[in-house]
Amino acid sequence: MPIRTDRSDLPRAAGDPRAGWVPDEGSIFGPILIDHLMRQAGPRVAKERRYITPSKALGCARELSFNANGTGGAPMGPSGWFLTSIGKWVHAELEEAVVAHFGAEHVTLEGLIGTKVELDDPVACRRCDGGTEQVGVGDTYVWNCEACDAVWPRAHRIEPEVFEVRGEPVPIVSYTDFHIHTPELNAVGDFKTVGGYKYKLAVGERGAAEGPSRGALIQAGIGALVRGADKVMVVNFARDAISVAVAQRKGMSEMQRFVAEWTVDLDEIRTEVEDEMLRMARINRLWHDEGLVAARRIPGIPVEISSPGNGGWHHTEQVEVDGEMVERVIAAGNAWNCGYCDHQRLCIELGPGRVPMPTDQISEEEE
Questions:
Q1: What is the distance between the alpha carbons of residues 319 and 169, in angstroms, rounded to a whole number?
Q2: Which of 7, 43, 175, 196 is found 20 to 30 A from 90 (Cα to Cα)?
Q3: 315 by DSSP, 3-state: which?
Q4: Distance between CA 330 and CA 315 in Å, rounded?
Q5: Which residue from 114, 69, 59, 65 is spatially nearest to 276, judged by alpha carbons?
Q6: Whether 200 contacts 206, CB under 8 Å
Q7: How many percent of the chain have pLDDT more than 90?
Q8: DSSP labels for 45-72?
Q9: 32-56 burial by CB neighbour count: b if 16+ within 10 A, else e?
Q10: DSSP-based three-state secondary structure for 121
Q11: C-alpha 317: how far from chain center
């Protein structure tokens, strides 16, 4: 029977989740760093795109629609700024070293897929939004901010490169992290900084090696196809190294504790690469030709996402039971993508299937 007497004065078992040496409630240096990173990057403006961006490979179809029509999403949080900046720092440090190793004639870094078209109109300062003036530098010019004295290069837009896939035009704008073109190796690839847990799964620290993200591999494969390379590479840098003891037990080298590389023949994944290029191009055209955003479909999941709040989906079939047809769930799960989607709230509001967009959500600018 339940205890009726008040015993709240009795000693309680240990287990306070805040026991131990907890950190300060606030942070001094976190905001300083994040504010600095945000000022360096400047404002990000959502823009309409009439082309595919390979960095979205194997992404949700509806997210690709939002990318096509320039729908702005939720702003990136502090952790996002920190983690993406780590990747940029690694890229920046690698560039000079990679060129020094291979020679400038044998490697292309940050190779543009597309064509820059210079613009002569004044641009707003990315640091303070002040007005700018044109200042000649040799045979070109830069924009100089009249308010904070910052200097920005000439403004430009990018014309897509149109690549034909199975007779269908696919406009692309992208950058390839690296293209190595030596007599021994013709490879295009991407550098990826990944979390420690993801890295462990990729290299086999927790069972069979899963390899790199499939999306990263297809992204690099698109670059290889467009650039005429025969090899595709993905390089993962871990943000947390595997411990010495585990590496020794798994037979991993000192380098493999924090960096792993995968190289495949383009022909091994060519069909999948072309399939994805066509999928992304058709989703882009669905918006620009028909004014519809795509259904919540993610490659690898057999049905549309039914609950974008948690990524939930369930696959059903009709079966006969006692002479009556009933619906039976044959597979279900939760897609991780939805939890990280910048457009989650809007996606929920729009509902399932192919749907039109409210006009107040659509960007009027085009990149």
A1: 42
A2: 43
A3: strand
A4: 6
A5: 59
A6: yes
A7: 71
A8: ---B-SSB-GGGTT--HHHHHHHHHT--
A9: eebeeeeeeeeeeebebbebbbbeb
A10: coil
A11: 34
Any bridge partners for residue 117, and if so which? 157
CA–CA distances in Å: residue 126 to residues 298, 351, 354: 35, 36, 36
Amino acid in the structure at residue 252: M
DSSP conformation class of 357: P
Average pLDDT over residues 271-289: 98
Residue 15 DSSP code: -
Structure tokens at 184: 């021994």
What type of residue sits at position 231? K
Tokens linked to 71? 């729908």
pLDDT mean across residues, the chain = 89
Tell me the C-alpha to C-alpha distance, in Å, between residue 87 and each of 38, 84, 241, 312: 15, 5, 15, 30
Whether the model pTM is above 0.90: no
Distance CA 57, CA 42 (A): 26
Strands 156-159 and 115-118: antiparallel
Question: Strands, E, within the chain: which ranges?
Answer: 107-113, 115-118, 132-137, 140-145, 151-153, 156-159, 161-165, 168-172, 174-181, 186-194, 231-238, 259-265, 292-293, 312-321, 324-334, 355-356
The pLDDT value given to residue 81: 95
With tokens 């993905």, the residue in question is 234
